[in-house]
Amino acid sequence: MKVTIIGLGLIGGSIAIKLKEANFATTITGVDKSKANQEKALKLNIVDTIAELEKGIKDANLIVLAIPVDAIKLLLPGVLDLVTDKQVVMEMGSTKQEILASVDQHPKRGRLVACHPMAGTEYSGPEAAIPNLYDGKNMVFCDVTKTDEDAFELAENVCEALEMKPIFMHAKEHDLHAAYVSHISHITSFGLALTVLEKEKSQGRIFELASGGFASTVRLAKSSPEMWVPIFEQNREHVLEVLREQLKQLQHFHDLLEKEDYPAVHKLIKQANKIKRIIK
Amino acid sequence: MKVTIIGLGLIGGSIAIKLKEANFATTITGVDKSKANQEKALKLNIVDTIAELEKGIKDANLIVLAIPVDAIKLLLPGVLDLVTDKQVVMEMGSTKQEILASVDQHPKRGRLVACHPMAGTEYSGPEAAIPNLYDGKNMVFCDVTKTDEDAFELAENVCEALEMKPIFMHAKEHDLHAAYVSHISHITSFGLALTVLEKEKSQGRIFELASGGFASTVRLAKSSPEMWVPIFEQNREHVLEVLREQLKQLQHFHDLLEKEDYPAVHKLIKQANKIKRIIK
Lengths: 280, 280
Known about the structure:
6-phosphogluconate dehydrogenase C-terminal fold, eight-stranded mixed sheet, 11 helices
């Protein structure tokens, strides 16, 4: 199986490493607009060869799109224009509705499998790619009824090679849920980082008190704007909905503390503790 | 050196294990109002013996208070009443101003060392205690000029035995900084957990999309109200200040997204990314 990966960052690079390791891919061709990423990916043995977009597509059985969601929306129609009825395209975007709407009527829509691997770190670039990023994680497949059966079967095999668990959703449901558990976590961390960095300007030494708890909560604030601004743009309505809910919850916490209603604060924390059911 | 630890949870239990391991303590006596904690601490070999509060204080060279901050405030004057000029008391509270104000005029104030070890996890109880919790972390000493020289020297030796780095602050400065890097992280996580748990009621499957990023940001929401409500109560003014700043930052993010000013969102994330300087 010849695989071409478009986008040699954390997501694409980690797919490349694992598909090679699992003997799923015989050859991996890399496509990336950044010369530096091309060189790093070759040097780190993430890909066997580098190609221009058109040639990379032409030579592959499977094409994986692992680039920011604005770039996916831009490139995907052209990629589908180029593929034959034997080739399969998997796009790995963190949003689905806008991307899928943009190719809904495309004659090659059946060759596309819309995926979202629920895995990542706050790092980016080929040097962030790791072999076991996906082990045991969920792979979301969206609107698979619009995908040809053979194309979906191939994608299922990729999922298995990555050691991921397949789950199925409508694009709309996916985007709402992603806003609630993934996108809001990032905004929460960005907000915390901004709050604390602002205070540091007048207070200097505040980071001497930073411990593991702070590090964990603020970790995602290291995530890149190149990836995240397009996600917030494409999923704007859901993100605004959850952000309003988050503001409401924090305002409520603030008001209870302001009026010194400690039994109510206690109850609120007890309620929040129920997250133990989800996060072990 | 005979050490008595009052409060056999994560903090006290981890101190006990390490001081024994480092041959700093010859005997460790445990004091805890919970019968279950007493039994667990004995069974896990965290303490050598269990005693009532008065007896535990009488027999020790060093007394460590590792209980919630409301309990410290309540017990500390009575503990100082009982100690001689040869004994030393270290209190490990996460807040300092109210606790120290409550014993400011106490005739034995010099025997007290006010400490805050900047380490912890979201778990509690003797079973959460681990030997290396403190390795390489900061130990904050507050208002040490009010502590007798020999008492502070002993506390420095404890700090060394725990392999911690000593740093020094005024109580007021400590409480402000703790609000900004520790207390707000917890409120942020509680808020996120409440937001998401609320949505789950109508949407069901949202946690299928939870990945490592969500788990990391929401981790602290597992923290217990018994520990945290008293911290928010004692540090209320600083916590309200930072919570208002956090609300302002999130509202600003919301407004930029609402009016679709993506270049400004990009700039905000770039600014938040500067946290990389602090959190490696």
